[in-house]
Amino acid sequence: xxxxxxxxxxxxxxxxxxxxxxxxxxxxxxxxxxxxxxxxxxxxxxxxxxxxxxxxxxxxxxxxxxxxxxxxxxxxxxxxxxxxxxxxxxxxxxxxxxxxxxxxxxxxxxxxxxxxxxxxxxxxxxxxxxxxxxxxxxxxxxxxxxxxxxxxx
Length: 153
Prior knowledge:
It contains 2 helices and 9 strands; from the N terminus they run E-H-E-E-E-E-H-E-E-E-E. By secondary structure, the chain is mainly beta. The protein has helices at 25-30, 76-89; strands at 15-19, 31-34, 39-48, 51-62, 65-70, 96-103, 109-123, 139-145, 148-151. The radius of gyration is 20 Å and the shape is globular.
């Protein structure tokens, strides 16, 4: 019988995103939200007499990797994502590996998730409001496609 040694729960605010390209270093510090994408594998149905049997599928599908980030005052990180997305659509594919570091309660890396050959597929709108009474800094959303992800550590 297996016994769980570490009974601490995973904190949702302990993470750091690293994009393995020098021009996106700003995104690491300003990333405020990220989700580990869902993974699915279809099932193959095969009828046999009066039964409907299902078997594991032959293809794993990964959902897009979505992040939310604080937009810098001069919009450098938004513009670099914009330029990356536009360059990809102009047939100048520029892939980058991305690493999501998951941290424990002492801010030490306990897991790393590597997204292989990632590239942006969408960046969200930026909302400007002139009637806000409090300063609410602008956040941006970006969605990345990638070939697959795996756990490094």
